[in-house]
Amino acid sequence: MLRKILIANRGEIAVRIIRACAEMGILSVAVYSEADRHALHVKKADEAHSLGEDPLAGYLNPHKLVNLALETGCDAIHPGYGFLAENAQFAEICARRGICFIGPSAEIIRRMGDKTQARRTMQQAGIPILPGSEGSLSSVEEALEEASRLGYPVMLKATSGGGGRGIRRCNSPAELKHYYERVVSEAVKAFGSAEIFLEKCIEKPRHIEVQILADHYGHVIHLFERDCSIQRRNQKLIEIAPSPGLTEAEAERVCALAVKAARAVGYRNAGTVEFLCDQEGNFYFMEMNTRIQVEHTVTEAITGVDIVEEQIRIASNLPLRYSQDQVQKRGFAIQFRINAEDPRNDFLPSFGRITRYYAPGGPGVRTDTAIYTGYEIPPFYDSMIAKLIVWAPTYEDAINRGRRALDDMEISGIKTTRAYYQQILKTADFRSGRFDTGFVERHPELTRYSEKRSKSHIATALAAAIAAHAGL
Length: 472
Ligand code: ADP
Ligand code: ADP
Ligand code: MG
What we know:
Bound molecules: adenosine-5'-diphosphate, magnesium ion
Radius of gyration: 22 Å
Largest sheet: 8 strands, antiparallel
Strand order of the largest sheet: 13-12-9-10-11-14-21-19
Number of domains: 3
CATH topology of the largest domain: D-amino Acid Aminotransferase, Chain A, domain 1
CATH class of the largest domain: Alpha Beta
């Protein structure tokens, strides 16, 4: 078993990994930029080391991180998500220098990180893919030709994209011409690669993804599916496990496809196969994420499997603890990504000091975060500051629990998406489980809520106090 792990990340996922280490009796080493000196992961780890002044450079420097891991006597690095988690070179350097990279091999990361290569691989393995260009495009003329073959609308996508960026829907040749260069430059800026490709655009699709675990002994299992269709600008906001909109037969079909996909590439460790589901119930491979995902928590809630612990066990060369028959799903879980953004003001980022933070509790409620009262959110990083996860025996119960827990949660001093999610939970579409990736765009009215909550809270508390006093 691994003994000491350096966590090459920050924020809630660093804290999440430190917790797994603590429970497993493994020492944890945190790293931080000076902007993160007062961050929770620094306080929670057994050791913490500065990466220097620059808010980003240290977290993105593979050599520095591997050197630090060696100097501090670590035998492994956990990359979390974002930053270097899907950087094949980082995994390669770890391997070369005798540090265990908690994730798949550099070769698999590279193959799946290039979306056109991943599509080819999956097609060869007999997994349905979305119609699209063979590989990356070489010119706007080629893009126009391919698009007329596929039929509009089409999606222009960055070949090494991630995090919902570098994706643009084009409804006509004029739009394709207009957006081509823009997507290229977006791809260069965000991913350091000018490669883009085309995919047929699926109308009103659902985003369905499957969590996979694979060990070094040929065992591959799935931990059921998640529905991540509640998105804004191709970025997930709310995730649900299992999908409330799939039939049992559909769920089984997509989970079997994911296992087949993972087997076909000789996958190791935890990973996620993402699919789009069209209105006829056909699943198409979209991409594979070769890391822990933000929404792994909802799968943990319905299966009881600690996915980060399993990642560490697999990296320690232990066989999977569960066969497919031994994992069962129970109930429904919903995760809300609490972002430091103002939904009422076009989701404008909102940074600054958290003057008061109260974490919701009660049965079936989990909060993963790195914030605390008095913490100042630095402006350099992702806007997701907390994840609220609720579990209940039925989908309806999970929604009601979500409303209660969101109401319980208090984050003062900055704007967040908390109250916006309350609006989403009230809609008939969400409650019926019938929604697709266009939900947020189709419901602009949900961002026009009033923030009277605290007042009604006080009023309710006052009424209760008066009632108690009057002996009512
Ligand atoms: P998940 O599927 O785990 O929900 P997201 O797509 O939300 O993943 O990404 C998780 C985090 O990683 C976000 O902070 C996102 O900005 C970042 N991220 C994901 N892929 C990339 C990438 N290729 N390059 C840079 N950042 C990325
Ligand atoms: P990323 O690597 O940024 O996560 P994905 O390829 O997973 O990019 O796509 C992100 C989201 O963009 C999807 O969940 C979906 O909502 C939308 N999307 C991507 N490709 C298509 C497509 N061909 N048709 C319709 N929607 C798409
Ligand atoms: Mg994706």
